[in-house]
Design brief:
The chain is an alpha/beta fold. The chain has a single domain, classed as P-loop containing nucleotide triphosphate hydrolases (Rossmann fold), CATH 3.40.50.300. Helix content is 36%, strand content 27%. The chain has ten helices and ten strands. The protein has a six-stranded mixed β-sheet with strand order 6-7-8-3-9-10, sandwiched between helices. α8 runs parallel beside α9. The protein is globular. Bound molecules: adenosine-5'-triphosphate. The site of adenosine-5'-triphosphate (ATP) has 13 residues, from β2 and α1. The site of adenosine-5'-triphosphate has 13 residues, from β2 and α1.
Length: 229
């Protein structure tokens, strides 16, 4: 579903991702884990097209989107839940979700969105900025989902969120996977969360993938070591 070959991403002269190649099939949840500054956000921003890549090919469902603007990539089926959520604090919950709907041409927020996130229905007339961190995270996921993505990217969705709500986010992501034909890619530092959702875990270090495990064979001690060095 998502295929990335020889991706290179730089900030000026500084090369953060040098030559990354990976595939994520349909219906897989992939977790990309790494410490701060290892390139997770840079990778996600380049996939969604906020950051230009210097080299490489990004394909969504066989379509080469490497030269596309972000909105065209979204139209082609990739959606992004950014780190820090970045919801619109002065828009209501409903209006926040509606900002994602232009792409999918939906007229009304579908019931399945409110079924996944009942709290968003309750709070639909509240300003996004008045929601808790966990509720804002749900809102950011809902806003991404109404674009009907084939590939959903979530950058550190547990950051700043309390443990009980982290469990809710894991449950919701697993439900989304059950309900839709979707590929989910999440960047994370919390292993217990990725163990609850991921089929495959990859460790990124200085822009390179240095370790990979299927969930059934995860070497948690090794991964914890990579995350704590
Ligand atoms: N705008 C920028 N200009 C220059 N260098 C940057 C910029 N943004 C990030 N970097 C550098 O790129 C590298 C990767 O950063 P990135 O934010 O992608 O890491 P990360 O794994 O997402 O970490 P975090 O969890 O802290 O967001 C770091 O060395 C960082 O200093």
């Amino acid at each position: 579903m998502l295929s990335v070959s020889n991706l290179k991403v730089c900030y000026g002269q500084s090369e953060v991702i040098s030559d990354l190649t990976f595939n994520v099939p349909k219906n897989e949840t992939l977790a990309i884990m790494g410490r701060n500054g290892m390139g997770k956000t840079t990778l996600f921003k380049s996939l969604i097209g906020i950051l230009p890549s210097s080299e490489g090919v990004i394909e969504i469902d066989g379509v080469d989107v490497s030269t596309f603007e972000s909105y065209q990539r979204v139209e082609n089926g990739i959606a992004y839940v950014p780190q820090g959520r970045m919801i619109f604090p002065n828009l209501t919950v409903k209006e926040n979700i509606e900002t994602g709907m232009e792409v999918s041409k939906l007229k009304e927020i579908p019931d399945d969105i409110y079924a996944l996130f009942p709290v968003l229905r309750e709070m639909r007339h509240r300003k996004g900025g008045n929601l808790s961190g966990g509720q804002q995270q749900q809102l950011a996921i809902a806003r991404a989902l109404v674009t009907n993505p084939k590939v959903l990217l979530l950058d550190e969705p547990t950051e700043g969120i309390q443990p009980s709500i982290i469990k809710d986010i894991a449950r919701i992501l697993n439900e989304i996977k059950q309900l839709r034909d979707i590929t989910i890619i999440v960047s994370e530092q919390v292993l217990s969360f990725t163990m609850a959702i991921a089929d495959r875990i990859i460790v990124i270090d200085k822009g390179e993938f240095i370790h990979e495990d299927m969930r059934d064979q995860v070497d948690s001690d090794q991964i914890k070591k990579y995350l704590s060095v």
